[in-house]
Amino acid sequence: MKILMLLRSPLDNDSRVKKEIQSLTKFAHEISIISVNTKSANLKNHYVHKWDAKRRVLPGISLILSFFSFFIFSFNRYKDHRIIHSHDLNTLTTAVLIKFLHFKKNIDIIYDTHEFAINCVPDESLIKRAHKYIIELLFIRFCKEVICVGGLIGQRYSQLYNIKPPSIILNCPPLNDSFNACDNKLLKKNFFREKFKIKPSQKIFLYQGLLNKGRCIEMWLDVFKNFNENDPVIIFMGYGKLEGVIKKHQAKGSNIFYQNTVPPEVILDYSSSADIGVCCLEGDSTESKRLALPNKLFEYMMARLPVIVSNGPEMVSVIKGHKAGFILAKNTTADAIKLIKEIQNIDLTVFNKNLSKASLLFNWENQSIVLKELYNNIDKQVE
Prior knowledge:
Number of domains: 2
Structural class: alpha/beta
Number of strands: 13
Order of helices and strands: EHEEHEHEHEHEHEHEHEHEHHEHEHHH
Shape: globular
Radius of gyration: 22 Å
Helix content: 25-40%
CATH class of the largest domain: Alpha Beta
CATH topology of the largest domain: Rossmann fold
Strand order of the largest sheet: 3-2-1-4-5-6-7
Largest sheet: 7 strands, parallel
CATH architecture of the largest domain: 3-Layer(aba) Sandwich
């Protein structure tokens, strides 16, 4: 089938969309993708919409211009595609408009929700949340299929909009090339100790992902800023609004380090250079974060890192069910320090077997089967 993917952000570091494109291409589908401001557009039939998100004179005019600019760009590149695969809520309206304006075309829409869209931004006004809810309520009815990134988010969508249960496709990494299915071992790297001159006796905690509020970053900075040279260290790998704050702490000579983002293809090599993954979200900031099942959780496990998670129901279920790490009871500095002291006395190799088993379950090869079946079912209905 001919598929048009819509993404109103750069594709460069969007590992989920890249994995879906690769899998669908492998399953003999013809993919076209429209993205915004992608720097490395190396895929066939990849159309990049260049957009300068500068402020305009009138409030809100930039958002309106951005929407219509993306819609026109996408509409002009629709070429008899059988399916429009809409990534995130901000492309759903465009997908539905293309469907209606090509009313003679038999177009199906797949809505791929990368989070719980109507409550995913901390401290967002009630008016903005209501606006997103109305958009989603109106247009989700025209979607053939809905994809969610976790079971509880899928349940919320089904209940909120009275739709059939969405397909659940977890944002897991592919099995690593270093992974050996015979002995369930990963060839761990040592990038961080070599680059930052970290002692072998010091445990390395790793946070990777967006460096924004709502992710307990300020709490972890408070924990590690007063540690001495023999205590554990934390490395923040990613980008975002708090990047400058992290770099200031690093400049003070504390046990805090910053690592630039790396391509998705090598991220597991870097992750495996740490000892413990950190995957904590402020669940009271948004419902999306409370119900989240982040890709970083699975990337840490694939890299054979036991994971510290906050008290979100989905993450706790994975960690408890697979005995793959630690649960932080409360997102406070005191609780985090207490947990680190407990971890100091634990031989982390006891997690190796459980993490190996989990990686054989939580990987993209398994998730892509769900994606394949979803598209096959649509294809059968057409026949």
